[in-house]
């Protein structure tokens, strides 16, 4: 309704991102960024989109724009993993856990799921559940958790969240 509202473009981008429409999501996040260059969500989601599109190197400048160190560490752990920079990915993950484990247990689970480490991912999803992490609302549609979908523990976790399987 308001074509000059960066938040509206961002919300549309998030729906498209979670629905697997990466190109459309990218377009809308770029529009949000154009309208408001300091808009946090544009760089956050563009970084994830670029990783999902197989363009992790394009995520690095977006991450640098973010003013939230915990979110930057989360994204670096994913991007460096995708770039094959294991030591840097591991260092970012260790720092995220050391400094922000109480704040971002869901994001830590997403990193482990993305890195195909399901045991660790489920451990952190359980921690997120115990701490009432509000990010759990996206569990079923979070692209970074996709590697867990065929694991029987995922259906059990969705049931625990009272989400349909």
Notes on the protein architecture:
The chain is mainly α. The protein contains nine helices and no strands.
Any idea of the CATH class of the largest domain? Answer: Mainly Alpha
Low-confidence stretches: none
User: What is the count of helical runs?
Assistant: 9
Q: How much strand? A: under 5%
Topology:
Elements: H1 6-18, H2 22-35, H3 40-52, H4 56-65, H5 69-82, H6 86-100, H7 105-114, H8 118-130, H9 152-160
Helix pairs in contact: 1-2, 1-3, 2-3, 3-4, 3-5, 4-5, 5-6, 7-8
Short description:
The protein has 165 residues and is mainly alpha-helical.
What structural keywords apply?
single chain; 165 residues; mainly alpha; Serine Threonine Protein Phosphatase 5, Tetratricopeptide repeat; 9 helices; globular
